[in-house]
Amino acid sequence: MAEAAIQLIGINKSFGPVRANRDINLEVERGTIHGIIGENGAGKSTLMSILYGFYQADSGEVRVGGKPIAINTPNDAIAVGIGMVHQHFMLVENFTVIENVILGAEGEALLKSSISKARSELQRLEREYGLEVDPDAVIEELPVGLQQRVEILKALYRGADILILDEPTGVLTPAEADHLFRILKMLKDQGKTVVLITHKLREIMAITDTVSVMRQGTMVATRKTSETTVEELAELMVGRRVLLRVEKGEPRPADVKLSVSNLTVRDSRGVVMVDDVSLDVHAGEIVGIAGVAGNGQSELLEAIAGTRNAEAGTVMLDGRPVDVTGHVDPGELRDRGLAHVPEDRHHVGLVLAFEEAENSILGYHDKPQYLRGPFLNIEAIHADARDKIAKYDIRPASDRLKTANFSGGNQQKIVLAREMEQDPTVLLVGQPTRGVDVGAIEFIHKRLIAMRDAGKAVLLVSVELDEIRSLSDRILVMFAGRIVGERGPDASEGELGLLMAGVEQREAAE
Amino acid sequence: MSAPFARLPRWADYGLIPVINLIVAFLVAGIVVLLVGENPIDAAGILVKGAFGSGQNIAYTLYYATSFIFTGLAVAVAFHCGLFNIGGEGQAYIAGLGVAVVCLTFDGVLPWWLTFPLAIAAAAAVGAAWAFIPAYLQARRGSHIVITTIMFNFIAASAMVYLLVGPLKPAGSMAPQTRDFLAGAQLPKLGWVLEAMGMSVRSAPLNISFLLALLMAWAVWLLIWRTKLGYEMRTFGFSPKAARYAGISDVRMIIIGMLISGGLAGMMALNPIMGDQHHMTLDFVAGAGFVGIAVALMGRSHPAGIVPAAVLFGVLYQGGAELAFEMPNISRDMIVIIQGLVILFAGALEHMFRPYVQTVFASLSPRTMGVPAPKGEGA
């Protein structure tokens, strides 16, 4: 067995009474790609934060290259050659690539010498690892895939031998993800060690040498990737057998319930985010909108839901127009049968400081069954919340617990229960399973299919291509604010990936 | 990376932490007293005795507390709406105009129990009107409410000086104040309650507006936690985006929230004008609007916390006055320093000791608190 780059021995970490990590033992071999997989809240990020010096373990030992060391701050981690690429990039958006790379390692008071040093170093890294990026480009003008490359460069520039990547593919197109994997393989061939944190089984199978599975704060198994299967890993993650494929019958589409024509939406900076989009959603079908995050899907959904003003275009809800360009009241749309599961449940779909029951009426709080004159009908609200908790298996089953204390999956179930139980005509769903664990994903997917089969018109926006493919009856692909193609549910991933990257459109233009 | 936050039991959150903050504030204040060459233990004794030592002292303490309850509630209602109303001082000051006009008009015609409701309505209406302008500017023009409400304090102060040395001053008088009200605009004192308990009260100004303050505390609780409007205000206060999503109008929330806040601040004017001085004089608010901010912070914007916090500041006002009188080295300004320390520790540094308390609680009794760990499948 090769030498261990990292050894974690008996790591424990508690936040109050919550044991985020218990007795974790992990050994990462030098020169390998080691995957860490687990549901949200399984403790993966906590473990890596301990390794990178954001948190200190309550007990246990960290060894790097065989030597026990204390990592109290990220600087300690960098000093022993550990670099981290965060899920949310830590880049200064209006700095150039080279300025970001030297940030925190500027050297002297004057930048000239460190910049020229960084420039030659970047050229070397580019040669060795194929990490091409223009050193003078401004970060905010770079696509997400390149921004991530800058993060990797930053770590390597600081001399990282061990690279930790936290959910690196969440923001990438399939093509960009493939490119990232090629880079990681190249890093491995050069003797670097890569730790990849993800909840996507497919990535683990595609790229890792070894995989460790975490569940509820413990390390439940470590396997050679070549000797395991997707089914086994899923079962280890959840602790029971999981259905990875969604079972659904043929759609029975009926009348058009939601019709969008020539919709154009600008964001607050005046940039056109949705560009002349038209689409129809029939009762009894799920229409999926695929696309890389930031290509206008969010704005499209918000404009239809009335939480963002459109510049031009019309939306017909059940045959009657919605004033999307003027004053539109989301509350009125709700009364007309439009339910909306927003993409951002933390800031939009829920008020995290509220008790569960208070969130179970958000947006429907002026329905007569929840009121008694100007007063809230507290008993009715709580009884209703308890019903939904039982029906949607929301855990812990407490209607008085603060919403912030529920896990991501259960928070999402609170939103879904609220929106679905109002028996809407049209259901808008944004990122229904973002940050949601595998067990809850299965539940949520089943519910969405059930809504479809009950004759609802469902418009689904998701950056998870697998989700779009397995749920949708029709797939629309969005790129740069436009719908660039429509495909059936059996479209291949590669075909959709090309559309999502805007390839076909560009070729057509030439 | 979501680090779960440990939760404290309610009694610790609302009781223990404020008490710890207070103790630290008084310890630091004790050091200040020591530095000016006085014995801090003696000083504390005089302070407490000055606030509670006799029926009269208690009545004074509660008289001050009355004003602070009104202004504290005003700040709290705005807080729940996500707004920081620093203009309680000016809103209360201008509202005195409403009280004075009602009193000067009806004091010879109506009995007090008819003048009082009219004065309440006038005080609330004028206070709300003064708060409406910054609210409108925030809601429609995006002018920051903190800036505009501060500015409106100055405008209110200047306007009142003009009125009190001009139109409102009786001819021939040298003092910048209105004429004295007749019996029809003088609120009954509450001293007899304390006297019935065997204490001597003499002429302390505690009056029936104390009961109005308690009634308003209850009304604010009802509004915030039991009505649809309160639900909408809290939603908007916690998350404007969620409010938009839920179909709650931001313009409506800002304006209604500030009207209620201004109305509550305005009612503070009743206490000194109708309850004590029986005329309106310059600067009768005397900083109560600003103390209301500290009271609301310390009371965690909950009426059940605001009332005791207001009493505490009443203690500091009344006991502090006695202290300045008894100890020559401790001036009126020293009292302000002590009040400042309480505000610092109870308000601004509210969360300083929280992590330690949480650690202690976590190690003592893991089951009484915290995020229930997800159990079993599907969690």
From TrEMBL, chain A:
Entry's family note: Belongs to the ABC transporter superfamily.
Predominant cellular place of this UniProt entry's protein: membrane
GO cellular component: plasma membrane
Subcellular location: Cell membrane
One GO MF term attached to the UniProt entry: ATP hydrolysis activity
Keywords: ATP-binding, Cell membrane, Membrane, Nucleotide-binding, Repeat, Sugar transport, Translocase, Transport
Record organism: Pseudaminobacter soli (ex Zhang et al. 2022)
Name of protein: ABC transporter ATP-binding protein
Record flagged with keyword Nucleotide-binding: yes
Entries under Pfam families matching the protein: ABC_tran
InterPro entries: AAA+_ATPase (IPR003593), ABC_carbohydrate_import_ATPase (IPR050107), ABC_transporter-like_ATP-bd (IPR003439), ABC_transporter-like_CS (IPR017871), P-loop_NTPase (IPR027417)
UniProtKB/TrEMBL annotation, chain B:
Subcellular location: Cell membrane
Membrane-topology descriptor: Multi-pass membrane protein
Top-level taxonomic group: Bacteria
InterPro entries cross-referenced by the UniProt entry: ABC_transp_permease
Keyword terms: Cell membrane, Membrane, Transmembrane, Transmembrane helix
Annotated TM spans: 12-37, 57-80, 119-137, 144-165, 204-224, 254-274, 280-299, 306-324, 330-349
GO CC terms: plasma membrane
Gene Ontology MF, one: transmembrane transporter activity
Claim: Transmembrane helix is one of the keywords in the record: yes
Keyword Membrane: yes
Pfam families: BPD_transp_2
PANTHER family given in the database record: ABC TRANSPORTER, PERMEASE PROTEIN, GUANOSINE ABC TRANSPORTER PERMEASE PROTEIN NUPP
Record's protein name: ABC transporter permease
Organism: Pseudaminobacter soli (ex Zhang et al. 2022)
Taxonomic placement: Bacteria, Pseudomonadati, Pseudomonadota, Alphaproteobacteria, Hyphomicrobiales
